[in-house]
Amino acid sequence: MNAVEVTGVSKVFRVAKGAEVVALDSVSLSVVPGEFVSLIGPSGCGKSTLLRLIADLDQPTAGEVLVFGKSARQARIDQDYGIAFQQAGLLPWRTVTGNIELPLELHGVGKAARRARAQDLLALVGLSDFADRYPDQLSGGMQQRVAIARSLAESPELLLMDEPFGALDEMTRERMQTELVRICAETGAAVVFVTHSIPEAVYLSSRVVVMSPRPGRIQEVVTVGLGSAGTRDDALREDAAFFASVKAVREALHGDAVHEKAPHSVRGVETR
Amino acid sequence: MTAAVPSLSLRAKSTNARVRPYVFGALGLVLLALVWEAYKAVGPAEGVMIGDITVLPRTSDIAMPHLWTMWERLGEPVTSAAGSPALWFAVLQAAGFTLGIAAVGWLVGVSVGMLLAIVMQRFRTAESALLPWVVLSQTVPLIAIAPLVKRWGAQIEVGAFDWEDWMSVALIASYLAFFPVSIGALRGLGSPDKAHLELMHSYAAGWWSTLLRLRLPASVPYLLPALRLAAANAVIGTVVAEVSIGLRGGVGRMMVEFASAASGDPAKPWAPIFGAVLVGLIAAGVVIVLGLFVGRYRRGEVSA
After folding, report:
1. By C-alpha distance, which of A79, A7, A87 is closest to B204?
2. ipTM of the complex
3. Are B282 and B228 in contact (CB under 8 A)?
4. Among A164, B47, B123, B200, which is most buried by a count of CB atoms within 10 Å?
5. Does A79 sit within 8 Å of B217, measured CB to CB?
6. pLDDT beyond 70 at A73
């Protein structure tokens, strides 16, 4: 059974005065358990929308979204996924531990078990010394690590991440990527990861889904053969295979876009 | 390591900032006393008039007794009758009585205000239906509703329970107190970010859990000023309602009683006024102390 099964999904947003925006147009995608899949594409290609449909934060206009064989809604109610956004979204009045415990608390996990789980997760994201700090005492990178720990709290088989490192500086970002690869190897969860960054997508993923805008469609799926998550490290960033995959994703992103634009006008390309 | 440095300097700064309001507060009091005595010393005995209108009061001892006269008067007995208690003691007793009623009014007002806000937050139709009435309620003058409340109260009789006049006063106080709470709480309950709400949704948290774990904690920064306003309103409501309902025992009634003695004993009516000020200060102080206990819910205020 697939972790995520998206079949012929469309999403149309109604904007002011009856106008419609087609955010997704008959998109189909499967993610197998344990697989790391990135969604990449320019703004407005519907990658975040697709993630939100899987998370049941929005409902598709047409088509079907299954998560572990259940409807997205049922999967959300059963807490089959953990989620992290671009903003860490920690509750400012809760300590780091309190924030990680929030989902467990909401689902009736006992106090001792919550404390133990939070300690494990803090160790996993390397923040054991900051357990009793408040979010405003942490750096952006630390806050994001807490958010990731929180998304892992209920040991989900699926992680949904919407540009979780988008607001971080480049150095913090690379360190977080390395950590995420390690965490995924340790937890064995499948990941759907939305990003703007080609190197990030290639470094993290087994497959990169390249999307195109207006209407949002899947342009191409690039399979990245860089080995299993457990064997990936920083050396990979300078590996020839890494650059080859970056090139493949870049061509998928821009190649066809140039093709499509060319017949309309040359100026359109120039201003890009 | 690096985080310790800013937090240290922050603490040093906040000690300074914590003392400053008290210093300025004390300075303000001294200034007020100086202005009073200075005007009394140099102002014309008949007051400052523009045409027929008095814009500044007469400076006679009857209209403006010396501050030390007021102070000395507090130590003397209320009346010349034998066994009469000291004025300060009578005022303190009355202030305690008023404070008690104001506290009941505050509690009732805060509960009603919170409840209204929660209902309005939960049901949009309730908000459109209730909010105009909540605002309108505050335009009704206290003097108009006091006799009504008293009359309606008099008709309530359930078993051994009898509606008493002090309850009417507390009810009127709560009528003034609920308003800022309902408005402040409504804003506070609606203040969480979309991201936080979606997070709770992704946890399949129901409305009640979201209220308890997200909306209520997030509303604390909005609630505290509202509670402070409610405390001030409750005190004013109590004092005014004591007068209009004619309830004995509090500073409100005492002001009216002592005012009739003003010509012969000009310092006496000032005593219950000080009593009312004291009640207001205590009420505001209690809310500030309350705020200290919920400090962690106000972190957003600091970092933002």
Report:
1. A79
2. 0.82
3. no
4. A164
5. no
6. yes
**pLDDT given at position B4:** 41
Residue B209 near chain A (CB below 8 Å): yes
CB contact under 8 A, B201 and A79: no
B235 in a structural domain: yes
In contact, A170 and A237? CB cutoff 8 Å: no
Question: Do residues A228 and A110 share a domain?
Answer: no
Contact present, B240 and B39 (Cβ < 8 Å): no
One domain for residues A33 and A130: no
Looking at the structure, do residues A70 and A103 belong to the same domain, yes or no? Answer: no
Query: Cβ of B196 and A91 within 8 Å?
Result: yes
B39 conformational bin, left if phi > 0, alpha if psi -120 to 50, beta if neither: alpha
Q: How many domains does chain A have?
A: 2
Cα A166 to Cα A196: distance, rounded to the nearest angstrom: 8
Query: Does residue A270 belong to any structural domain of this protein?
Result: no
Per-residue pLDDT of chain B (304 residues; tens, 9 = 90+): 444 444 444 555 567 777 888 899 889 989 999 998 888 888 887 777 787 887 888 888 888 888 888 888 888 887 777 778 888 888 899 999 999 999 999 999 999 999 999 998 888 787 888 888 888 888 888 778 888 888 888 787 777 777 888 888 899 899 889 999 999 999 999 889 888 999 999 898 888 999 999 999 999 999 999 999 999 999 999 999 888 888 888 888 888 888 887 777 888 888 889 999 999 999 989 998 988 888 778 775 544 3
Whole-number average pLDDT of chain A: 82
CB contact under 8 A, A106 and B303: no
* DSSP letter string, B7-63: HHHHHHHHHHHHHHHHHHHHHHHHHHHHHHHHHHHHS-TT-EEETTEEEE---STTT
Mutate to test the interface with B, among A54, A106, A143, A152 (most CBs of B within 10 A): A106
Cross-chain residue pair A83–B199, CB shorter than 8 Å: yes
B chain contacts of residue A135, beta-carbon cutoff 8 Å: 299, 303
Interface of A with B (CB under 8 A): 55-57, 76-77, 79, 81, 83, 85, 87, 89, 91-93, 102-103, 105-107, 134-137
Give the residue numbers spanning the domain of A107: 87-155
**Of A79, A102, A134, which has the smallest distance from its Cβ to B204's Cβ?**
A79
Provide the 3-class DSSP secondary structure of residue A78: coil
Based on the fold, state whether residues A124 and A203 are members of the same structural domain. no
Where among A106, A131, A155 does a domain terminate?
A: A155
